[in-house]
Write a structure and sequence with these properties.
The protein is 62% helix and 3% strand. The chain is mainly alpha-helical.
Length: 299
């Protein structure tokens, strides 16, 4: 099977002026003695840079997103950004919804730094999957990087699944609903495990090890297939996802059986060879000790 992996689309957002409302809050709270204008302008530019990095599929873009997320968390600890204080409207589109002529794309607008961080983390996971998808999986480095990034995405989606409801005080868009995030986490984990499987084959590891890794990957894909076929969500995913995940699950199941069979055959051959060696050793004619010379006395 060709090396084809799935990536998660990024959420889209628009420009937001962070500096103006935050500057007013700082002046009102801390007085005019401190000039925070430069720092706030830098913070504003950092968000603009992070938003533009959604299309850049390389690790440097990930670093920009992480930096903005961390600075936003630090600012949030000192300057509240909520519906009741320092209102800044963050509008984010649903990552999977395409919209149509009559109805625009699904979106949610909240004045909440916590909501902004949730969407940022989603995009960090999505971009990680996009960078993983374009790795050269025929190389050692590509396999390692792909597995690492898919695992990273799985961990972030799983984290969001457990905390998103507590951070957003209203119904989220479908892409950041807990059930969606759980499905994406399992799918990313399956792809990471598939990359590990390909590495075990490349490294010509023992058949028993390859079979075990392949079996774990097919288990993850089976879980992902079950989740994306849930009635309430099956029409939400991009076309082709179900058939591709089903194909990968079947392929890895077959690979697990193949390597398990190869391992059994190898052990059987080893046992037979060992038995044959023992049999041959028993069938060898025993060495006859040299005849002892006997001295006869003439009568």
């Amino acid at each position: 099977m060709a090396t084809v992996f799935l990536s998660i689309p990024s959420k889209q957002t628009g420009e937001v002026n962070l500096a103006k409302p935050l500057k007013q809050f700082v002046q009102d709270t801390y007085g005019a003695s401190g000039d925070f204008t430069t720092q706030l302008e830098d913070f504003n530019r950092l968000r603009a840079s992070a938003v533009s990095k959604f299309v850049d599929k390389h690790e440097a873009a990930l670093e920009v997103l992480y930096r903005y997320h961390d600075q936003l968390a630090a600012v949030e600890g000192k300057i509240p950004i909520t519906e009741n204080a320092n209102r800044i409207n963050f509008k984010w589109m649903d990552a999977f919804d395409k919209g149509n002529f009559f109805v625009g794309k699904l979106h949610l607008t909240l004045s909440s730094a916590a909501y902004e961080r949730v969407c940022l983390l989603f995009n960090i996971a999505a971009l990680s999957s996009q960078i993983a998808e374009i790795q050269n999986f025929d190389t050692e480095e590509g396999l390692k990087m792909g597995a690492k990034l898919f695992q990273q995405a799985a961990g972030i989606f799983d984290h969001l699944k457990t905390c998103v409801i507590g951070l957003i005080n209203q119904e989220p868009t479908p892409d950041i609903a807990p059930e969606t995030l759980g499905t994406l986490s399992v799918l990313m984990l399956a792809q990471a495990q598939e990359a590990f499987f390909r590495k075990t084959v490349r490294d010509t590891m023992r058949d028993a090890v390859v079979a075990k890794v392949a079996n774990q990957a097919q288990d993850f894909y089976a879980d992902a297939l079950r989740l994306i076929q849930v009635d309430s969500m099956k029409d939400y995913w991009p076309k082709g996802w179900v058939s591709l995940v089903a194909g990968k699950q079947a392929y890895l199941h077959a690979m697990a059986e193949f390597y398990r069979s190869s391992n059994t055959t190898s052990r059987r051959h080893s046992t037979i060879s060992s038995s044959n060696r023992r049999l041959r050793s028993h069938l060898k004619a025993p060495r006859v000790p040299p005849t002892l010379a006997t001295t006869h006395t003439s009568p």
